[in-house]
Amino acid sequence: MIDIKDLTIEKASEMLKKGEVTSVDLTVACLKNIEARNKELNVFLEVFGDVLEQAKKADEIIKSGEAKKLTGIPIAIKDNILIIGRKVSAGSKMLENYVASYDAFVIKKLKEAGAVLIGRTNMDEFAMGSSTENSAYGPVKNPIDLTRVPGGSSGGSAAAVASGMCFGALGSDTGGSIRQPASFCGIVGMKPSYDVVSRSGVMAMASSLDQIGPFAKTSEDAKTIFDCIVGKDEMDSTSVVIEGRTFSTSIIGVPREWLKEGVDKEILENFEKSLEKLEKAGYKIKDISLPYSKYALAAYYILMPAEVSTNLSRLDGVRYGLRKEGENVFDTYKKSRSAGFGAETRRRIILGTYVLSHGYYDAYYNKAWKVRHAIEKEFENIFKEVNFVATPTTPTPAFKFGEKSDPLQMYLSDIFTVLANIAGTPTISVPSGFSSAGLPTGIQFTGPLFADESLFAIEKDLRENK
Ligand code: GLN
Predict the structure, then answer these.
(1) If we measure between CA atoms, which residue out of 161, 242, 152, 156 comes closest to residue 455?
(2) Which of 174, 312, 421 to mutate to test the pocket of ligand 1 (most atoms within 8 A of CB)?
(3) Which of 62, 198, 399, 463 has its CA 20 to 30 A from that of 18?
(4) Whether the CB of 91 sits within 6 Å of ligand 1
């Protein structure tokens, strides 16, 4: 039986082409790991019934010599990405039995590449959360320490990769939902530049911030998935095609003044160690100042709920979603939405409706947009001086279940990740050692708009400079 825990997509793909393994072998190995641990970890909401058929088809493609890099590779999909004919619930009771009527662009791309779609992964309801504790189907456990969260909202996808249940996964990232769980589970997670990956077929949380991106064990694997899912899509009018952007220098800016408070000591130590390794690998480290960026979290928690409240208004028991019959149409809306949405989703809808309401719109929503523009400018300027900005991915390693019962405490765990969504820039979280308790920690690199390609090399340089 083949051990896939440390097997990368790169290696597996070579083995497939040489005929050393088949896609069926790889898929069976993933299924074995799922069987062994899915009950305790609660990673997959559904493992698709036809995975072996998919693998057999992939094996035929490989035999015919037409294989691409992802042909025959098992990939897990976050439960807010549409696959035609399959259930997709966004971790919510509201859409428990909803069946997708078309393929998301990213799914079309994976299918064209012959990837094996293994199942849909658990997540915080409508991607709102940092721990998966907001899933209507129970939380995911961190495979490294079962008493701790895997991060969120794409916690299922991260835990699936970290526990060898698949080779890579797709997640969505509105304020850190790929990078934060990647760092909590010790893997690589990347959020592309806004518009580089089509959002067609992805359930909208906050449309001006949402992006789809890859999870994988290494940056080479993350790049393989990224390369597969980028591209112009007529179904998403904002989608763009980018020319790869590379730099002749490798200068990393570090906003150290921002890291003085509220960041775990061990996270900082590991962060500095990773920077030292990169220095040895030829990178230049430079202190920078980002005075506006510390307001990114405040702006995010105004803009995001505003967009959430509008995006989720269609889930009213009439057009979409669970229906609870009331005395009249308004009562039906009220009953359906109260029964279908969990507490955090309701909190954000109320908050979003409030900041958009007459009398408060200028005070909150418009002001948050001004902050967003100031941050965008700040980023534009800083990228004239440096090629990348580095921070820890999160202020602490994975926390325990129930530890952050105060919503504001939970929101603070997004302090470093929301910035790239506010600025629309590409960003990656890569492993940066372990805490003394054996918990993974992550370091995050953000590049200028459309410099997505250049981010992948950093993890390799870090990995190879021990
Ligand atoms: N944790 C953040 C939030 O709850 C980010 C979520 C996301 O990126 N989908 O809003």
Answers:
(1) 242
(2) 174
(3) 463
(4) no
133 CB near ligand 1 (under 6 Å): no
Query: Are the CB atoms for 189 and 195 separated by under 8 Å?
Result: no
Q: Is the CB of 143 under 6 A from ligand 1?
A: no
Per-residue pLDDT of the chain (466 residues; tens, 9 = 90+): 678 888 999 999 999 999 999 999 999 999 999 999 999 999 999 999 999 999 999 999 999 999 999 999 999 999 999 999 999 999 999 999 999 999 999 999 999 999 999 999 999 999 999 999 999 999 999 999 999 999 999 999 999 999 999 999 999 999 999 999 999 999 999 999 999 999 999 999 999 999 999 999 999 999 999 999 999 999 998 888 887 677 888 999 999 999 988 999 999 999 999 999 999 999 999 999 999 998 999 999 999 999 999 999 999 999 888 999 999 999 999 999 999 999 999 999 999 999 999 999 999 999 999 999 999 999 999 999 999 999 999 999 999 999 999 999 999 999 999 999 999 999 999 999 999 999 999 999 999 999 999 999 999 999 988 6
Cα separation of 290 and 256, whole Å?
Answer: 10
Return the structure tokens found at 394: 């999160």
Render the burial of 64-80: b for 16+ CB within 10 Å, e for the rest. eeebbbbbbbbbbbbbb
Structure-token pair, residue 453? 């390609």
Selecting among 177, 250, 336, 429, the annotated active-site residue is 177
Using most ligand atoms within 8 A of CB, pick from 124, 153, 183 the residue to mutate for ligand 1. 153
Amino acid present at 417: T
| From 13, 23, 69, 78, the catalytic residue | 78
Rounded CA-CA distance 163/231 in Å is: 30
pTM of the complete model: 0.97
- CB of 127 closer than 6 A to ligand 1? yes
Find the helix packing angle between 219-229 and 105-112, rounded to 10°: 110
Distance 236 CA to ligand 1 centre (A): 22
